Amino acid sequence: VRLKYVFWLDASLLFLFCALEVVPFTGLLLHEWVGLAVVPMIVVHLLLSWTWIASSTRGLVRSPSWRGRVNYLLNLLLFASVTAVVYSGILISQDAVPAMTGKTAIRLDGIFSWRYVHNRSANLVLFLAGMHLAMNWTWSVAAARKILAFGSEIRR
Ligand code: HEM
Fold first, then answer.
1. How much is the average pLDDT of 22-35?
2. Which residue of 16, 57, 66, 70 is surrounded by the most CB atoms within 10 Å?
């Protein structure tokens, strides 16, 4: 039952991140709302991964392996870039955030801009989320097999 929730949450996150990377796919208004909706989903994703986070943090100090180190660094960078993309997204928001705060949206120009940060961190998220999926590929395929009952004829 737990695996089912984890799997569908992760699958939804994967789909929503793909949609978020291509703004014209949803339009900007939906992009902003989806971008905000993804935040609580990520929090749940992290809470469900808490055992890993806790044990690998301990393992990093006690018995570091190269795979463990790389994976840990990757996940840390992914967390940082998702935080950056959401933070900058909120600051450049043209619809969703102004609608909630009642303030006028900032103009999307200027020399230094959060728009630049948003674009760059979105690129990073795309790359790192891809690596994250690759790192957890064995788990993902095994979970997909179980839940979607692929290859059930093989098991029987
Ligand atoms: C959570 C993950 C998010 C990802 C992966 C993401 C990704 C992207 C990407 C790839 C673009 C297109 C950049 C370009 O034009 O080259 C973009 C634009 C934009 N995003 Fe996001 N975004 C996210 C969250 C948000 C949030 C939460 C908001 C606001 C509430 C937001 C507001 C915007 C705005 C206003 C633009 C247009 C900026 C422009 O025209 O340059 N985004 N986003």
1. 96
2. 16
